Amino acid sequence: MPLKPVFQMIECLFSRLRVTVPAKICTVVLLASFCLFCGTAEAQTRLKLATTTSTYDTGLLDVLLPVFEKRYDVKVDVVSVGTGQALKLGENGDVDVVLVHARALEDAFVAAGFGVDRCDVMYNDFVVIGPKTDPARITGLKDAAKAFGRIAANATPFISRGDKSGTHQKEKEIWEKAKIVPAGTWYLEAGQGMGPVLRIADEKRAYCLTDRGTFLSMKEKLDLMVLVEKDPMLLNPYGIIAVSPKRWPHVRYDTALKLIAWITSPEGQQLIGSFTRYSAPLFVPSAKNQE
Length: 291
Fold this sequence. Notes:
Helix content: 40-55%
């Protein structure tokens, strides 16, 4: 911040108002301190990260980002939304980097020229959860499409994200495999993130599809349980992508690359792998450049 013009203006004002010397000194010291603070704040690089609600709701970012921010003197501003919305922010050049989990949408994002330098980061899995009474009788099934078929056949309540998130995309794939178009009073599209959807499912004693990490992070607050798991179709990989500087020259591409390199480094991957709830890891590191 240029200080000389500011002090010249203040001196002119002092002379007109006949301010006393002690008051002048006090004012100048305070102003200088404020300008120094502003200059320091402006010097810190800010990086905009759009990411899924699952990385935010689980608390993973609270473990990962502070280490990166301290090491590189970067402040990461997080926008937590569904994968579809996160990628849309990238398409519009409103963020610098995205961390998402819908591989088909990610590949389309890169192919369209909106993103570059995609890297695998980690994975967990989706699970079908529901009330312990399990009225649709899906407990223990290893076929998510078959479970969805039973839920629809019994018209038992099902809560959908309905928000174009990675979880919502996976849910639609399962319905398609089951050859069912869900509709009726039993099927509710919430249009909200994973945390709110889990709370709605809990209140309504309903089924829903969730990533395991978010469920584990909220498990003690819910009267729901995992009923269907370990279907290969339920694998849930995450990728990180820099927004293309060719499409949007204003993005902080170099800083985005630093975040990508750090998250996929052995240190970043170790932090991801050691992040647990109930003694179980919420995510499994999967970066290909680990040593």
